[in-house]
Amino acid sequence: MKHRLMLLAGTGLLLGAFLWAVPGQAALPGAETCLIKGSATITPGLKIAPQSGSVSISGSLSLCHGSNLKVAKGTVSASASGTGSCAASEDHLSGTITWLKSSGVSLGTSTLSGTLVSTGPLANFAGTITGGLFAGSPVTTTAEFQPAGGATKATQCNSSTGLTNVTFEGVTT
Predict the structure, then answer these.
(1) Which of 24, 112, 145, 172 has the CB geometry, 3.0–4.6 Å to 168, for a possible disulfide?
(2) What is the pLDDT of residue 69?
(3) CB-side exposure of 135: number of CA atoms within 13 Å?
């Protein structure tokens, strides 16, 4: 659950994304694709046994292409809640993407909502842009995450606090 949310944040959180054009959205000739990279904080920490929890995600988008709007990069912030363990999770995620030109000038924002599912270190997000720029477009993200501090920190799943911080990288489509 929490792992998947973190990966999306690379929706941002972070990853590559295709935002398909909707009627009346002439700015999108086909798709917008970005790489996503970020981090997530999980409360309570993930453990071996599944439990309810929440995830706070932040990330950045880079190498964006595909739009007539000249989107070059962006930022992502999201939160998710659901049930998960170090082995697998499923969460409902909502977030905001701020789209930027290469100069850093904002082109606008998008709100999104969907489901984040993870198995091991892989997370997949499927949702919809619910408002703002590209409203109505589907968005998907595939990302890989690891414990903050490296893979050797995976033993935190067995600790009393669990795994509380992860980093992720991926592609949003």
Answers:
(1) 145
(2) 77
(3) 7
